[in-house]
Amino acid sequence: MKTSLVLATAMSFALASAALAAPPTKTGTTPKGSVLTDAKGMTLYTFDKDSDGKSACNGPCATNWPVLKAEASDKADGGYSVITRDDGSKQWAYKGKPLYTFAKDQKPGDITGDGFLNGAWHLAQP
Questions:
Q1: Using an 8 Å Cβ cutoff, are 84 and 95 in contact?
Q2: Contact between residue 65 and residue 102 where contact means Cβ atoms under 8 Å apart
Q3: pLDDT per residue over 14-29, tens digit each?
Q4: d(CA 96, CA 111)
Q5: Is the whole model's pTM more than 0.90, yes or no?
Q6: Pairing of strands 26-30, 33-37
Q7: What is the 3-state secondary structure (H, E, C) of 50-100?
Q8: Which of 27, 91, 94, 110 is the most exposed place for a label (fewest CB within 10 A)?
Q9: How far apart are CA 11 and CA 86, in angstroms?
Q10: CA quadruple 100, 102, 105, 109: dihedral, nearest 10
Q11: How far apart are alpha carbons 114 and 126 in whole angstroms?
């Protein structure tokens, strides 16, 4: 009986933590429609030069376009994945596209990065 109680308790904790797992983004509204945002409400972007779940934005690019960081232990689902960057760090991607914020966005709802670099940067949309 004691073993059953321990097992039932362990299973309830596992189910509770799985149920509490939240997606790594939120949804915000901008003049251009709904966008994905980070936890602080800052707009997320995708980059045309990224390919097949791999980020092409490193070095100075990543300074201007901070990545949406993931932890190695993060679990992906619902269109989200965790990719490994060239430096070994982890980054969230949505539908295979790595996600970034833009250093020049000052507040939630800013979308100053949309269309940057001859149209290579885009709003990440749900």
A1: no
A2: yes
A3: 433 444 457 899 999 9
A4: 21
A5: no
A6: antiparallel
A7: CECCECCCCCHHHHHCCECEECCCCCCCCCEEEEECCCCCEEEEECCEECE
A8: 27
A9: 37
A10: -30
A11: 15
